[in-house]
Automatic annotation (TrEMBL):
Coiled coil: none annotated. This is F-box domain-containing protein. Residues 67-103 form the F-box domain. It comes from Triticum aestivum (Wheat). Transmembrane segments: none annotated. InterPro entries: F-box-like_dom_sf, F-box_AtFBL13-like, F-box_dom, F-box_dom-containing, FBD, LRR_dom_sf, LRR_FXL15/At3g58940/PEG3-like.
Length: 535
């Protein structure tokens, strides 16, 4: 049994008994569960309302004549104001004046259960093992029953659903009947494999849905004809699902544009068929393989900390098999580790008398290269040839092991043969966590000397390079700065990394699906870094 699956189907008491038999501290169970839940909360969208939002009129004096001009606004404007308030504040508007009393019931409600906690959720997610906030659960039930709908958004993340199965089922029935648009529904473990009520699949009003710590129902249990005709964004965090259940959700979501799967605990196979999906994010997920079969609108594919089949361990590697078929508009791809990932490509062209597999649409690529392992570096040239029109390359260099398995020099890159993207299309190269190894320098020097249209090279130097007085960054970078650059107009920028605990490439999942960021891997301006002058 894989390590990702050991929590499934086991009660909290049984797990505690196992830990005690092994002579370990029972507190470790809650610590581990809290860590998992913390990651799930991190990937949830923020509520559109906040109990701590500043009021623009908080310091304003009342109008001298005492006239209530706000109440004179049209009903449609007042309802819009109410819909932008937390549920408690929205309900309190009924006490303002008789003009407001009927408006609360006709305004789309925003209900966030953490706002009903004594501190308004300011202290963050509740600790596992703490008593389930029954007062909050009761308040949610009352609000859902009292308001006729529709619901602008409902975020339910505080309750241990196993202790409130009756309320949970009624909540789902009510939300389906009254029409919720934005739903975040998280079960606080334990158990880890509580089955999601199948009636949720009948909620046609949903435009955004995030589910956390659930087992998705089998397709046989889903109501006939159920679908999500308006769903545009779907997030599955710490979910257990079968291949067919995932495919079923995609089939029944004809306008889905953004799909996020984080901390999936079963080895599902993702076979992507969607004519609407634009962005797919996968992270901390145990997937057997990924096959992009027919996704004509897919533009971005992100992979981070995806588990390899059979290892039972999360790594910064991608799945061992990624097959890219019908994705003619795929522009952004990463992070992928050449050599660890088998890249299947359906597009075959004849180049220099031989057949080569290519993805001509990809313009931005992020890769993870183990420069301390010779066999890993040797896979990189062939991998880059798959992307002949690449314009921007992001390279993450993980810590080099003490026992390096060989290095490659500039001659290796020069003799491996031409790479079309390096010579003809590559304009930007970003290199993260540079450690000064000969293999790293050889790669960067090759890019500098062969990149005819290169405009910018950014090197982020790892903090470890500054830990010793003997480490001179200028000396390590001298072969690069002294190289014969093919593009005389190219600018070289060197920064000192601010990261101390480097556990993988730096990513921001909220930026990944933001198409306002042309390059979601380029985080130079997302945080400030110290510029280094080289001579």
């Amino acid at each position: 049994m894989d390590e990702q699956q050991v929590l499934l189907g086991i009660s909290r008491s049984d797990m505690l008994a196992r830990i005690e038999r092994c002579g370990r501290d029972p507190a470790m169970l809650d610590l581990g569960s809290n860590m998992l839940l913390h990651f799930a909360y991190e990937y949830l969208p923020d509520p559109p309302v906040s109990p701590t939002a500043p009021l623009s009129l908080a310091d304003a004096s009342w109008v001298p004549d005492g006239v209530d001009r706000i109440s004179r606004l049209p009903d449609v404007v007042l309802r819009d104001i109410i819909s932008r308030l937390p549920a408690k504040d929205a309900a309190r508007t009924t006490a303002l004046a008789s003009r407001w009393r009927p408006l609360w019931r006709s305004a789309p409600l925003a209900l966030v259960d953490s706002h009903l906690l004594p501190d308004g959720g300011a202290s963050g997610p509740l600790i596992i093992g703490a008593p389930s906030p029954r007062a909050v659960t009761a308040a949610v039930s009352s609000a859902l029953a009292a308001h006729p709908g529709p619901f602008r958004c409902v975020h339910l993340t505080c309750s241990t659903m196993d202790e409130h199965r009756g309320e949970m089922a009624r909540w789902i029935d009510t939300l389906v009947a009254k029409g919720v648009k934005d739903l975040v529904f998280v079960n606080r473990p334990w158990p880890m494999d509580l089955r999601l009520p199948a009636t949720l699949f009948s909620c046609a009003s949903l435009t955004r849905l995030y589910l956390g710590v659930w087992t998705l129902p089998g397709t046989a249990a889903v109501p006939r004809g159920a679908s999500f005709p308006n769903l545009r964004e779907l997030g599955l965090c710490m979910t257990v699902m079968e291949d067919r259940a995932l495919a079923f959700m995609l089939e029944r979501s004809p306008v889905l544009e953004f799909l996020l799967i984080m901390w999936s605990q079963t080895g599902a196979r993702l076979r992507l068929v969607s004519h609407s999906l634009r962005c797919l994010q996968l992270g901390y997920t145990h997937l057997e393989d990924i096959e992009v079969v027919d996704a004509p609108r897919l533009e971005r594919l992100f992979l981070r900390n995806v588990s390899l089949p059979g290892t039972g361990k999360f790594t910064i590697n991608s799945p061992s098999r990624i097959k890219i078929g019908g994705a003619p508009n795929l522009r952004v791809l990463g992070y992928i580790q050449p050599g660890q990932t088998e890249l299947g490509i359906s597009n075959t062209v004849i180049m220099a008398g031989s057949k080569e597999k290519i993805v001509p649409s990809v313009q931005i690529l992020a890769i993870d290269v183990q420069f301390g392992i010779r066999n890993a570096v040797k896979k990189a040239p062939g991998f880059l040839r798959c992307f002949p029109n690449l314009e921007t390359l992001h390279v993450y260099s993980p810590p080099i092991p003490e026992k390096s398995t060989g290095k490659v020099n500039l001659k290796f890159w020069q003799e491996d043969g031409p790479m079309k993207c390096v010579v003809q299309s590559m304009k930007k190269v970003f290199f993260y966590e540079f450690q000064g190894s000969r293999s790293e320098v050889a790669f960067l020097k090759f890019m500098a000397e062969r990149g005819r249209v290169l405009e910018l090279m950014v090197v982020v130097v790892a903090k470890a390079c500054f830990s010793s007085v003997d480490d001179d960054v200028n000396v390590k970078l001298k072969p690069l700065t002294g190289a014969k650059w093919s593009s005389k107009a190219c600018k070289l920028h060197i920064f000192k990394s601010r990261r101390t605990d480097v556990a993988g490439p730096l990513c921001r999942h909220n930026i990944a699906c933001d198409f306002g960021w042309a390059d979601p891997f380029d985080l130079r301006y997302y945080y400030k870094a110290e510029r280094i002058s080289v001579s």
